[in-house]
Amino acid sequence: MSDAGPKVSPAIYGFYRWGADEINANKMERIIDLCLELGINTFDHADIYGGYQCEEAFGEIIKNKRIKREDIVLFTKCGLVVPHPSRPDVKVKYYDTSKDHITESIENSLRKLRTDYIDIFLLNQLDPLSDLEETAITLQKLRDSGKVKNIGVVNFSVFQHQLLSSYLRIPIVTNHIELNLLNTSAFDNGQIDYLKQKYMRPLATAPLAEGQIANSIEKRPLLIRRKLEELSPKYNANIESIAVAWIVKLGALPLIGTTNEQRIRNIAAAFSIDIDKQDWYELYEASRGGL
Fold it and tell me: pTM for the full model?
């Protein structure tokens, strides 16, 4: 993950696209089994995923399957609060990285995931109203207690990343950022460069742009898809595998969100592809509307 971070699988499976209506034990177990079959043993959660139900469903499955805790890597996060029938006091989406919210969230996550520790605990966005010194002290105490092994962040700008780091005595080991052939803004806003400066590997959310690379009929996706189709015979690979291999070439770790099992296989197949440098730049130009 980084010089200071834990070892993780080459891709991470995240439940960020699971809605409350998708929390089905059989479906989740199939996805977990497929990931483990493909060598993906790292799973990314948040308190809010699946209508605040994902963590508990996952924890129950892991318990029933008798999977050893040391054989999987678990992420979870808090900070983003969203309305839900189970949270009648929440009227609007907002952020909360206060001491009380972080402490309550981590205790709930540990209980639901049926574990004594979280490998990486992340702040999901930065709350401008929270006391950052208090937030940092809370994160430090969680790490010192052993309940949290590492700290990460989600969708932080470079300045937010630097700001939180200035209050912490422990390293931030990763930043979840959106990165795919339809969204290369992380090159322009400094996120990629800053992560490299800190010897971190970015977690690339939406590596296939939520299916748009394969399915959209808009101009840019069509341009990128045409180039991917040209490269497909050369690498003997599906276009989605090549699109993810483009991210992997940067040293990024794709964060899988799809429940489409073939798409998960396509992403895993990316790790056997080493894209030629000129092909990488052709795809980069296509992502910018060139060629």
Answer: 0.95
